[in-house]
Design a protein that fits this description.
single chain, alpha+beta, 6-stranded mixed sheet, 28 strands, 19% strand, 5-stranded antiparallel sheet
Amino acid sequence: MRLLLTNILLLMSIGICHAQFTPDAKLNEELLKTGFIHTPLQVSSAGSMEERYAQKKVRMAYPITLPQNAKITFATDTGKRATGSPDDPDYAIYGSGELIVPLGGINMEQYNRIYFEVFPRCEGARVVNTNLVFENESSKVKKGFTAPTGAHLVNLKNNEWNCCSLEIDDYQRDNLKQLRFYTDIKGKDLTTGDSAIYLFRNIRFEQVEQTEKTHGWEPALNQLVYSTSGYRADGEKMAIISRETMGQAPSTFQLIDDKGNTVYEGKVQPIKSTIGEYGLLDFSRLTTNGTYLLRLGNLLSLTFPIKQDIWTNSEWRVLNFIFGQRCGFDVPGIHSTCHTDLYSHHNGLSIPYAGGWHDAGDLSQQTLQTADVMFALLEASEMEKGKNTVLSARLLEEARWGLDFVLKNRYGDGYRASSMGLLIWQDGKIGSRDDIHTVRVQNMAYDNFLYAAYEAFASQVLTHDKALQTYLRKVAEEDFHFALEKFEKEGYDKFIQPYEHTFNTSESQYHATICWAACELFKLTQNHEYEAIAIKHMDELLACQQVEEVAGFSGFFWRNRSHKSVVHYIHQSREQLYATALVEICKTFPQHEQKIRWEKALKNYGDYLKKLMSYTYPYGMIPSGIYHKDEQKDTPAFQALHLFPPTNAEELYTLQLQEGVKLNGEFYLKRFPVWFNIFNGNEAVILAMAKGAALLGDYLNDVELKEIAEKQLYWTVGLNPFGQSLIYGEGSRFTQMDSFSSGEITGEIPVGIRTYENTDEPWWPTINNACYKEVWTPNAGKWLSVIASLKD
């Protein structure tokens, strides 16, 4: 904070109104109003999908008769303690209020949208929302539809009428029995009053013009798919149209500048790939900075920039989201100081578990995920040094917030407060009925190895605070040796908390993490004990790499030496650790005799990533990877990766592989992960792989690998089949997300795009639900981390 204030004073001395913290003048002005994000950026729906929905022409409508006195009403204090399931009793709410709208089994298949209006009158509430559930009664689910029920979250503005709509093509609606609106009771924030009322009116089913595409690879008819955040001036630039659109549109396209001049014209290139036929609009030759739009006959894109620095805006916005997720802090407009009566206990000691950042749409916390984000913020801050002083300082300030949480939850004997699943606000009064004392405490060797790496890195970069720097070195060495002692005595951890995202950790990831942590500690201490450890675990890691070509691929990693299961991730991913370990051992010990071997492994892994890319062309999304047909028989690995699998998981595994690309009799390639349950969405998967590609590309000076990394950013901000930005407020065509505790926040980023049923095709439903559309702080960290490795 002190460093940031120093920079603010410096800017004031030179004329703060003329200072540029971002290339966008409007965002620059908004940042000034936030005091450089010490209050969240104002949420604007301009350019959103909700704005687009409101503009669609309604062809016909079917009004629904509401029950008399149509409202939800409840007391915000039930007088009882929130109680959840026996295995996780404090992951709970206080109940819910609901409104049932009977429909009597009507068939609404000729309608493709529902419209309704809601007036929340919730005293003192800063975050208000409601959920809509369709209850359809059919003997079976029709092909092309989702299950007959499923909640849709709607974020609302308090004390005003909200006009809400939902396109319902994905809902089966041939025998609708009722609509159910409900709002969960989640406790009281400081300003929350005693009652909440939600008034409803004007519910109707509508038929509108072309609804939004929700699944498949091909863009919608007459839709230009492009990066809504723009393109780097010296990089590849393309947009995509469907084959059907190409058959109706002109064969040439133009780029128009902000003065209305045509500055570039090109031919639409027909292409055929493993995922279909498309029209490609390639304008990579245009390198002049400016603001442009694409024109293809009567089709026009929204405006977007071309310039060398296109990601700084998103850094500020994503940083804004991270700030909005702070726990134990008064976040203006979102919540007051929270969760100060939430505790861990160990060996007669107690630590309040307030601090860091809420993990997702709920109010849960994971200390290691806060550490992941903290490390990404430090990386980003270091990258911005000397380029954008204010952004660098603000990133550092936010990193310090997370670091404080990571350090304060150490018990000093290897144990740490590790996580808490949480859905409620607490009153902050110690001794009241909502106090919680069930924060998980663990001594996990893997966790401590990764903490040690993060602490050692922090010690190297936080040079402005010598006392903290020294302390970080001390705890990094302590945590590493706690981990090493436990590992040498007990071997690989027996992960017991399925809700913590280390549960899927493989042995090879374990070795990559130990190697990297040892490298960071060697750089910090010059102690050759760490050199020996790094080399030993790199040897173990390389024993898990596929050296010989199989099914046309090599260079990928197996979960362990047995080579039974390939490394995959389905939700949270730390795949970047493989590239991190390979790059850092080469950098840290450049004269070592094994460096040639390490660099060969590093290059082989990079070649594997490159070879994957043709399977999603013309999109740039990196595929999940190569799979062996019998991985479901590797029971320990399969159960670690797939939480709470259905009874037919092994059968579904084979089915989903067959929906991918069969490479030979043993191996398949999957564009999206194999997954079975609520934990799906691939943003963390592609961003972790992007980070790995960026690190490898930087070390090898390989432009193709760097472009692979950047393509994951382009995919995220609109160069995907749905043409939507997955970051709220960044670019355009972004949509409301499942942020049911903290409300819509500029810069929020979700778990990510999922697949349609058991196919290998992308699915991005209009339905706002977890966990694909649930906001997720770890992905914000990954976004910043990738950019930190891409910026010059």
